[in-house]
């Protein structure tokens, strides 16, 4: 039972890591694109 709990915790942790990475990538993309959008 403990092992199953541990696996679920690991999966949730990895999912969170992936989400953080995705957010970082989106931030970088937005930063790259922003000058194009806001240049007069």
Structural class: mainly alpha
- Gross morphology is rod-shaped
- H-E string: H
Q: Main beta sheet, described? A: none
Work out the helicity level: over 70%
List keywords for this structure.
40 residues; mainly alpha; rod-shaped
Which helices and strands occur, and which strands form pairs?
Layout: H1 2-38
Kindly describe this structure.
With 40 residues, the protein is an all-alpha fold. Helix content is 92%, strand content 0%. It has one helix and no strands. It has one helix at residues 2-38. The longest helix is centred in the middle third of the chain and has 37 residues, at 2-38. It is rod-shaped.
Q: Short description, anyone?
A:
It contains 1 helix and no strands. It is an all-alpha fold and 40 residues long. The protein starts with a helix and ends with a helix.
């Amino acid at each position: 039972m403990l092992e199953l709990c541990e696996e679920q915790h690991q999966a949730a942790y990895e999912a969170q890591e992936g989400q953080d990475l995705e957010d970082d990538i989106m931030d970088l993309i937005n930063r790259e694109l922003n000058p194009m959008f806001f240049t007069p």
